[in-house]
């Protein structure tokens, strides 16, 4: 039977200003923290996104990290980004006004409102000296502000008519993450996570371009396989599996 994770399993520490909540989480792990620790900050001075991109960190948005220790066997961690995206998606969906634009997930874990990015999720891992694996799940939500110069169209909750404070939004995220991590069950619940993810996926059946470190490839987004790997239909070149990359529509 899966271990039911309850809200009482988690601790939360609210900070004012940090370099980044992920950096702070790793510092706590090195100091012996046992995990299930949420850190939130009013502002980050060194926030970062995927591939080291800077993350705009003005006051009024949510900057948070969940620290997990030995979250799952390494071979099971590949599905965790999908689970995290589902928790963020559920939290955003909860606060959206009736009749608002659709809330979807762009593979693997970008939460979109009306096809505009509203969150950043960065998972980082570090093997600490006592042999434990520390995992920092960084989650930033555009609540009051959004960056101006980005690779993708972006939006904020305020742009969508949502009036909410970062602590109020975090309360939703806190609850949704506990539920999703229970379902994920250290990777054993991947089938249900994949099923839920497919229900809120953005762009299945559409043409996409995937930017890889060394090249860009295009095709029809055919969804994800049972492990969460992107399936790209390249016509006469056949079906291609993509484990990591940046997706662009059209």
From TrEMBL:
It comes from the Bacteria. Residues 8-185 form the BPL/LPL catalytic domain. Keywords: ATP-binding, Biotin, Ligase, Nucleotide-binding. GO terms for molecular function: biotin--[biotin carboxyl-carrier protein] ligase activity. Coiled coil: none annotated. It is an enzyme of class 6 (ligase). InterPro entries: aa-tRNA-synth_II/BPL/LPL, Biotin_CoA_COase_ligase, BPL_C, BPL_LPL_catalytic, Transcriptional_repressor_C. The keyword Nucleotide-binding applies. The keyword Nucleotide-binding applies. It catalyses: biotin + L-lysyl-[protein] + ATP = N(6)-biotinyl-L-lysyl-[protein] + AMP + diphosphate + H(+). Its EC number is 6.3.4.15. This is biotin--[biotin carboxyl-carrier protein] ligase. It comes from Rhizobium rosettiformans. The lineage of its organism: Bacteria, Pseudomonadati, Pseudomonadota, Alphaproteobacteria, Hyphomicrobiales.
